[in-house]
Amino acid sequence: MMDNVYITGFMGAGKSTIGRSLSRILKRRFVDMDDEISRNSGMSVRAYFEELGENNFREAETKLLQKISSGKSLVVSTGGGVPTSLINRKIMRDSGKIVHLNATLDECLSRLGGVKTDSVRPLWSDLTSVSALYNSRLEAYADCDLQVEASKKSADKLVWEICEKLQPQRSIDVQLGGVRHPLVFTWRAHEEVSILAKPSKTFVITDKHVSRLHMERYSNALGDATVVALKAGERSKTLGSARRLYEAMLKDRLGRDGLVVAIGGGVITDLGAFVASTYKRGVPFILVSTSLVGCVDAAIGGKAAVDLNEVKNPVGCFATPSAVFLDLRALSTLTGKCIEEGLVEAYKTGLVADPSLAGLIERNIDSLLQGDLLTLAEVVRLSASAKSDVVGKDFKESGLRRILNFGHTYGHAVESFNNYRLSHGMSVAVGMMVAVAISENRGLLRNKLSVGIQRTLRNFVQSRTVIPPATEAWQIMMNDKKNHNGRITFVLLTGLGLPICVDDLRPEELDAAIRNVEGLKNG
Questions:
Q1: Which of 38, 47, 89, 106 makes the best surface tag, with the fewest CB within 10 Å?
Q2: Helix (H, G, I), strand (E, B), or coil: what is residue 230?
Q3: Do 319 and 186 share a domain, yes or no?
Q4: Rounded to two decimals, what is the model's pTM?
């Protein structure tokens, strides 16, 4: 997932323009090979050709490419002649993906203002020679990992098309209580939703933040759908908001043959599913997740709920959507804090259900925290698939699904102790650190594995974070709705992907684990 992306194509195909746009979207560093050679040599490309010759220039390209290939998560705009060397193509393929921008010669000429004898491009002399050069390179350009047709397309469209080819759309069937629905990982969520929504009267629930960032493309796709945008944040996940939505649906004369589409993060998908499931005893609904937390966790599993009197999710139900779309394009707009929140939940799922997901996050934690979009998309795919597998086997949380509460028992105590001023993600990360410490102290988890997990979790926890002592945490945890017979339920690890649920935790064990974590986060 750390592969570089190499953009190839003829002069004027748009390599530099597309490369820069792609690097911004992917949150990766951009390298323009022609610019690098000019900077290193102190000469323009044309001057380099004239003074040192083409052979020396090609050698400089190969040396630069070898240096670049040792880097990670780069977007590289290559010179037009780079792919003509078999050695260069091997260097690129061994260290990443080759993306060819296939533009017609006429399109290239148009973008560069035709052929000029005084062009800064050394091989851009007359139409006959340029045409011959173009044709001579076609075979080398065709030797690529993926090709996009660049003629008559905007840079924005080309960038998203490249993303889609690098991380193709996928769909899995999820079964919740005997009812199946598709879970779709897609860059074209707005288009996919519109296909399902066309036969129905559509009512869209979103929030103002998501509306500002994404509703233009959804509105264009959905046409005359009614849209209600609530205030962003947890305070909108209430019975009061539900009532407002019920009244808006009645005013809109939405029938049981209508369709509710909830577009947003976990607050909106939770609320939307709850409202749709209870309005007129249930209308079909689609969830569209635009946050990382939603894509890896909140939108998956069929839980719907609202908050009541500062208590999270005490009123709710299990509900089955018609479809769930994970909007990969929306991940490019997330803040660093939102990415951290989602990565905590994804790492939790990896630790209890998919070691390959946990390993992916551990190996790429730095680039993930910086928002590397392609790696985030892979995290979404693995996490959503793993959670879907778990909830498909235990829809109503009678057994297996409890493993997804790893880190949440003490994590909720951390949240409550800090009067919910501490983020949920950071609280759960602390909760996981405590659960790992308990697991190691009990001899369930090897020290080497424990150290690696704690090292990753420290990326999400600030040293100044105040965590509750065992005595206060114990009282908070006694009120956890997942407890049974008055005993606190804790999820521990015996290895990667090997969780166990216990209810025999002792206060002194918790105290020892908390002291271990205090030492780790302050170390």
A1: 106
A2: strand
A3: yes
A4: 0.93
